Each structure stands twice: as structure tokens, then as C-alpha cells.
Amino acid sequence: MLLAILISNFAGNILLERSVYIVYTVQGGVCIYIVSKDEYDELALTEVMFVITSSIKDACGKSPSERLFLDKYGKICLCLDEIV
């Protein structure tokens, strides 16, 4: 049985499972997950989530649907590559 704490915040949701942090959000029809173990905490992941969601919105021109995300996939991958 897995015990987890679910915390709501402005950028998405945070799931804490032992020493694993999962930050996730849903934009339109697209789910975005960021996972870290020990190295980065939920605050750092929330900041990364904000940057990623902002760059996806900029690349798409608005909050992405599945179709718009697939149409702009190349541009989104280029933006995410530059972030990393």
C-alpha cells in the first residue's frame, strides 16, 4: 500500500511518495509530469513546471489541446531542449 500526500497549488499538484516528488498539471488535453528523487524538492520542481507550461503556452499561442500540441510538437521540443 502506497501512502501519499496530495497538495493542491497554483501551478498544478504535488504528490509526495517517500523520497520521490511528482509535480503534475493538466493543460487542455495535455498532462505534464515532472519527477525527482532526493536531488530536487517540490519547490524547485514547481518552478520548473511554471517555466515549462509558460513555454508550451508561448509555442502554441494559448493553452494547448491535444491537436494543437501535436501540430506544434517540433517547436515545443525545441523550446524544451533549450530549457534543459
Record keyword descriptors for this entry.
about 80 residues; alpha+beta; Beta-Lactamase; 3 helices; 4 strands; elongated; Longin-like_dom_sf; cytoplasmic vesicle; Coatomer subunit zeta; cytoplasm; transport
List the SSEs and their pairings:
Layout: E1 5-9, E2 12-17, E3 20-27, E4 30-37, H1 42-60, H2 66-71, H3 73-83
Antiparallel strand pairs: 1-2, 2-3, 3-4
Helix pairs in contact: 1-3
GO cellular component, one term: Golgi membrane
Subcellular location: Cytoplasm; Golgi apparatus membrane; Cytoplasmic vesicle, COPI-coated vesicle membrane
Subunit structure: Oligomeric complex that consists of at least the alpha, beta, beta', gamma, delta, epsilon and zeta subunits.
